[in-house]
C-alpha cells in the first residue's frame, strides 16, 4: 500500500490499516499517519504516480551520530552558514517525495528550513542553533529515504552558478536586441524610407552593439584561445560571420547604403547562445548522474586508532594518512591500499578482477582499496589513500576520459573545419571571378554577402541540439552515450559480440541443485546458522535458499574460515564443514552453468552436496532472437570453459562457428579486430581490450572501471533490452544528424549561389538565415519525437 | 508622424525594463533549478494537520 508493489500471497503483511507488501512499508505508513502526513498517498494518487521504490530497510538504517562530531561538522557544514548542510537524498522519485521531505521542518525542532532540488536530488537543510545535524538523515531514514551528507566545493559551485546565470543574461540581452531590431527592420523592408529608414538603421546599429560585444563575448574568447593552440573549432566561422557582418553593415550604414544585416546577425547570436545553453544543461544533468564517481568508496567515515585514547574513533575518511591503523567491519569496503595487520582475512576483489570468488590474505600482505571484507573485522595499516590508491588512479583516469569524451566537439569540429575551409576557398576564388567579370567593388560586395549567408548553423546549433536531445532521451531509457561517433558507426554494424558471464548470464552464484531432503531439519538449521556468519557470496545464496524454511537456529561456536576452501564451525557436539570442490560432475543434465560444487560434512562425513552456478538472464533469449531477426551476426566471446560456453550458445541457438571459449583478453580483441564492423557488449576486465578494439564498445551495469573507460556507451540498468533500445536510438539519431547535415549543405549551396550571382539583398538574408535555422531546429526536435518512442520492454 | 520617435523611445524603454527584470530574477537564482518548483506549486494545498503544527507555530514566532 505504501510503495504500490503488487501484493501476492507470499509477501503480504496484514495490519489494522490494511495490507502491505513488507514491514518496511507498513512502518512508514504508520509513521506518516501519526505525523498527519497521510496526504502523501493522496498526492501520489492525484498525480498518478504508480509504483515507487520500496523504502530502505530499517535494519540497514545507519547511525548518523557521527555527523554531530566536530570534525565532521567542519567538513560538511557550509562555510558561510555554519547551520546549513547539504545532503544527497536517495529514493526521491516523485512530487509526493518532494512534499514529504519539505514538510520535515514543520514538525522537527532541530530543522529550521529545507529545500529539495529534484534535478540533482540534493537537499539544502538549515538547522536550528542546537546543531543537531544527524536529525535530518535520521528522519529521512524513517520515511525510507537514505540521505548522505554532501561536501560541496563551494567555490566551484558558485563559479559554475555564476557562469550559468551569466550565460542566461547574455542570452536575454541578445534576445532583446534581436527582437527589437527585427521590428525596426521589418519597417525598413516594408518600405520606410528617408529620415525614418536612416534613424531606424541607426537605432538597429545601437541595439546590435550589446549583442555583438557583450553577448558574443564567449565566442571571441574561445577563438582567441583556440588560435593560440592552433586548433580549428566551430567558433571560428561563427566569429567570422558576426564580425564581418557587423562591420560591413556599419560601414554600409555610414555610406548611406541600406545593405545592413543587423537583424540576421543578432538573431544568429541569440539562437546560438540558446542552443549552447540547452546542450550544456543536458550535459550537466548527465554528468550529475555519472555512475563512475559514486559507489566505490561507499562510506564517508572510518574507525581510526587513536594512540592517546587507546581506542578507535570515527573520523572523516579523507583525514586518513598513511601509517595510520584502521579497523574495517565485516562486509565493509576497504577504502585504502594497505597492509593487513590481522592474521588473516578473506576479501572479494571483484572491482579489480571481475571475479566474484573470494581470496584470502594473510598478515602483512597488501590489500587494495575497493575490495570488500568478507571475513570478520580486520585491522590494517594505511599505505596509500584516496587518489593514490590503485583503484583511485584508475578512477581518476576514467573520470577524465569520461568527461572529455562526453563532448560534442568531435562531431561538429570536424565538419566545421571542412566547412570553414570550403567557404574560404570559394570566397577567394569567386572574388577573382566576379571581379574579372564586373569590377573589384562588386566582387567584394558579393563575397561578403556569400560569407554572411553561408550559415554554419547546422554545425553550430542544429547538430549540438539534436545531439543534446538524443543524449537526454538515451539517459531516460537507461544508457549513456559517451562518444557521439557511435551514431555514425551504428548503421554499418553487422556483427554483435557478447560476453558470457555477467552479460548473457547473471554472473552471480545461485543454487542449481540441492537435495534438501537429504538433510535433517537439525542439520539444515546448523548449516543456516553457520552460513549466516559469513558474507561470502556462496553463503548468501545458501542463506536465502534456506530462509524459506522455519528453522530454529542453534548456537554456533568455534566459527572458523578454512581460508580459500570453506568454513568450519561447531554446533553442540558436532563439527560441520562446508567446502568447495573443484572437480565437476562430467554430465550436466541441468539447464544451467555449473561453477562450483560444495560438500557439507558433519564430523568428517559427507551429508549433502550442492551444485552452484550461474544462470542465463531472463531476457537473454528474447534479445538474442530479436537481434538475429534484425539481421545481425551474433557471436559469443568468453574466457570460460568450453562446456559452459557451448551450453549457453545452444540455449540461445547461436551457431557453433560463432562461439569462442577459453579466450584470453588479447585473443578476444584479436578476434574482434579480424571481424570488423562490430559491437562488443561486455562487462569484465577481460573484456576491456575487446571493448576498445570493437567499433562500438558497450559496457553494461556493474562493469569494472577499465571497461567503462574504453567503452563508447554505458548501459545503466541490468537489462539486456536496453541493447535493443540503444541500437534503435542510434539509428534514429543518425537519421536526424544526417538530415540536418544534408539540409544544411543543400541550403548553403543554393544560398551561396544566389549570393555570388548577386541576387541576395539584406531582406533575403533576413528571411533565409533564420528560416534555415528554424527548419534545422524543427528537424532536430522532430527527430526527437522519433526517439521518444517507448522502450522495447514497454512494447511487449 | 514624429510621434513614431516617441513610441520608439517608449518601446525601447519597456524592453529595457523587462531585460532589467530578467537580469534581476536571474541574479536572485530563480532559474537555477527549473525542475522542482514545477512540482512544488502543485502541493500547496496539502498541509500537515496534527498537533505537530505546534512546532511550526513556535518557529514562526
Structural account:
- The complex is a heterodimer of chains A (796) and B (61).
- Chain A has 28 helices and 28 strands.
- In chain A, helix 11 runs parallel beside helix 16, helix 15 packs antiparallel against helix 26 (721-756) and helix 19 packs antiparallel against helix 20.
- Helices cover 49% and strands 18% of the residues of chain A.
- Residues 290-297 and 401-407 of chain A have low confidence and may be disordered.
- With 796 residues, chain A is of the alpha+beta class.
- With 61 residues, chain B is mostly helical.
- Chains A and B meet through helix 2, helix 4, helix 5, strand 4 and helix 7 of A and helix 1, helix 2 and helix 3 of B.
Concise summary:
The complex is a heterodimer of chains A (796) and B (61). Chain A has 796 residues and is α+β, with helices and mostly antiparallel strands. Chain A has a 7-stranded mixed β-sheet with strand order 16-28-27-26-17-24-25, with helices on both faces.
List the helices and strands and how they pair.
The complex is a heterodimer of chains A (796) and B (61).
Chain A: E1 13-15, E2 18-20, H1 23-34, H2 39-46, H3 70-76, E3 84-90, H4 95-102, H5 104-107, E4 111-117, E5 122-127, H6 135-143, E6 146-150, H7 154-189, H8 194-215, H9 217-228, H10 235-255, H11 262-288, E7 301-306, E8 311-316, E9 325-328, E10 337-340, E11 344-348, H12 350-353, E12 359-362, E13 366-367, E14 372-373, E15 378-384, H13 390-405, H14 409-437, H15 440-453, H16 457-477, E16 479-481, H17 486-489, E17 495-499, H18 500-504, E18 510-514, H19 521-531, H20 537-546, E19 557-562, E20 566-571, E21 574-581, E22 593-602, E23 605-614, H21 620-629, E24 633-637, H22 642-652, E25 659-660, H23 665-675, E26 678-682, H24 688-693, E27 696-699, H25 705-710, E28 713-715, H26 721-756, H27 762-787, H28 792-795
Parallel strand pairs in A: 17-24, 17-26, 24-25, 26-27, 27-28
Antiparallel strand pairs in A: 1-2, 3-5, 3-6, 4-5, 7-8, 7-9, 9-15, 10-13, 10-15, 11-12, 11-14, 16-28, 18-23, 19-20, 20-21, 21-22, 22-23
Helix pairs in contact in A: 2-4, 7-8, 7-11, 8-10, 8-11, 9-10, 10-11, 11-16, 11-27, 14-15, 14-16, 15-26, 16-26, 16-27, 19-20, 26-27
Chain B: H1 3-27, H2 36-40, H3 53-60
